[in-house]
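Look over this record as teaching material.
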Amino acid sequence: MIRCVLCNRAGRAEVMLAVEARAACRECAARMGTLLRGARPLGHVWALESAEAAQDARDDLTDELVRVSGGLDRADAEEVVRDLRRITAEADDARAHADLAVAFAEMGLVQDALEEAALVLAPGADDDARGRALEAVLSPTLLRPGGLAVLRGLLYPV
């Protein structure tokens, strides 16, 4: 029997995570989506970067686009990044948002990753996309030490 990494109930793990063979159930995914869409500060769960660090990471992404493109200048590369977010938002494609959440998480853009994941972690969303979004937000590199326990408390207050 598989246990949900968030609620610890056995047999309810329908959304599989690709992180260390863990799983989370649909109810927990939906609760997390609600939490992420709320106005509550979550810095005690995730290692949220400062505005300056986030801008540095975005600048690094732009620099990498300029480097690998062979022809883009910095302004064009910044526009590519803005267009990617705009197109993803307009497409309302859960998988695209989930992939963006994973990409942002890998780049250290924690707040951006959480915002993209929040769009996917809702009832009725594609299970594969929700699994990818959960993979991003439950990544040990994004969670603060003890963050998973704090998250459990926020999802299931006593």
Notes: Helices lie at 26-37, 51-69, 74-91, 94-107, 110-120, 127-137, 147-155. The two ends are 25 Å apart (CA to CA). Strands lie at 15-16, 23-24.
